[in-house]
Amino acid sequence: MVRVKKTGLIIAAGLLSGCLAMTSPGAGKTDESASSFSSRFGFSQSEKEEDPEADAANGPGAAAYADQSKMEEGEGPGIEDVTMSERFHADFGLYELSIRDKYFLYSNVSNGGVTDQPVYLEIPAGVDYTAEKDGVPFSYASRQTVSGRGTYVIRLTVVEDKNVPLSEQKEYRTVFRFRIDEKTPEAAAQAGGEAGLPEGMGLLPDVIPSGTRETAGSQTGEASEPERPEETEETPAPEKIPETAKAAETGASLHGDDGEPEQTAAAGEQAGAVKRSQEYLPDQSMYQVTLENGFTFLSNIPEGMAVTQAVEIRSGEEYGLFLGEEELEWEASRQLRAFGQYRLVSGDYEFDFEIINSYVNRDSYTAPVGLRITKATFNGEGLDVGNGSALAMTTDGSYELELEGQAGESFSLKLERDTQPPEVTVEVGRQSAAITYLANDINTITLSKNGKEPYEFTSAEVTGPGKYVLTVTDRAGNVTVNEFTLRYHMNFYALTAILLCVAGIAAAVVMLVRKKKNLTVR
């Protein structure tokens, strides 16, 4: 009797395991698309797209995907676009800008102003901001001096009271913008005895004298109109500008022409006052740059230039070098190739440049100070370069530019303007999704499953139930996002087979029970 019972159980277990193996999804299936995709885009190995964590709720007859409940979100803060008020304090050459008369910013240029001098903006704590130059985001720190020619936009955001509930908060948004450009010869001649002061504005020293804010805030007179350069006769004479401001003024010579007024002897004799300069050395094919604090180094590109080539920096003295917010290790001579915004920092002074991808998503290219665009083509056809200060890039395609400097230096750039997101198709089947990549300039691909952290993805097929987000980025920074869901679908024939297996097991058990009752012990 015992032997018969054991034999029946073994037969039942075998039937059940065989049924489950026969009906498991994807049994015997191989993935050949991953290897073909890897060979096409040059990936060395493929990553398995299955989630390493087993889903205990999955199984025959069970729904593998359950919709995730969304967190209840309260009503967000009220958003209001505001315009900053502005006052000009002539005694200090200082513009005071106010957000709701609570947050005060200070700059040496008016909001919407144009100047040929270096510019910086002091932003108080509690104000969040982002910065763009010619439509391209870059990293900016409060009181950072910028001097490259171009249009700058600082977007400011402030929350009135962060201690109240989110639904009761008020968020104010505003914009500070200005442009740095060279004066035309006519404008430079009209500037005459102003010693390089921009029209309608004074100079702000790199370190604001102690008590500047309190003094400015105590004035009760009406603010002058910074947008009216014709009223500059009423502006106090340059000799009223603090000596520290004159020292800062000496650093503006990098952005002037030979025809600009010479610096006064009194300013040149001040302690620590060094004329900022940038001179091209033909024998070395390098620029010798001297900052206001006397720090000197060599660079193969001028300040403020965006290039697709490697940048070389040489200096025997230590300096700070930043790629975005990341500080790089100092080297006496180094080659820089990584894409991004760079800042060379020495004391309170900076030298900025950018290494860009040849694939770009931008509307224009601006020549740096000291260079002019002398020739440009679009898809092989010549373009009008105007005065050579900037080239509009309004249509996707291939642009070639040639730039020349006063010392005979020249640069060539080839840029591919691409504003279209990469084309990707996802065909979702019953138990898998087939992905087709139609773009030839893909940079990165990531896949996220069920809201988890995205990971690098190198395959052309996704299997396994779940909610997926596929993100594809091209070399120009354009992004395509595809969201899709795979659910477990029960096969009718598989379900029938399982039921038959269960019925067979039940019949075997019944037969064993009946035999047990009929057996007699002798």
From TrEMBL:
Keywords for the protein's UniProt record, in alphabetical order: Signal
Stretch list, region Disordered: 27-61, 187-274
UniProt feature, compositional bias: Polar residues: 212-221
Signal peptide: 1-21
Comp. bias regions, Low complexity: 33-45, 187-200, 262-273
Source domain of life: Bacteria
Name of this chain's protein: Uncharacterized protein
Organism, scientific name: [Clostridium] asparagiforme DSM 15981
